[in-house]
Amino acid sequence: xxxATPLVLLECLVAGTSHRPDLPSHEAELHLGQTxxxxxxxxxxxxxxxxxxxxxxVTDAANIWLGYLPEGRNETVARLLDxxxxxxxxxxxxxxxxxxxxxxxxxxxxx
Length: 111
What we know:
- Keywords: Hydrolase, Metal-binding.
- The structure is a single chain.
- By secondary structure, this protein is mainly beta.
- The protein has a six-stranded antiparallel sheet, with helices on one face.
- It is globular.
- It is about 10% helix and about 40% strand.
- It has one domain (about 5-110): Alpha-Beta Plaits (2-Layer Sandwich).
- The protein has helices at about 25, 75-80; strands at about 5-15, 35-40, 50-55, 65-70, 85-95, 100-110.
């Protein structure tokens, strides 16, 4: 039997990539189709539903913090993460626009 296709919960850009100073030196390590990891930042003073996007689990030394799910589009994902659902993301597109690294992702939930 063929494995179930993950459910796409959200398609969005990663917000805040221009505020990640080390990101330009790591851009070459990002590959289309790559799994990305989501971490709740429940104590954020700017966004009650803040969700960080990472290249690896935060405990991994190779991890690079890429940015956030966009404010205003992150509440459902944040609530699912808070409830213990194992969500990940997938990198669909990357491109430089001046000094901004445009990262287009899908947030996925296994069925």
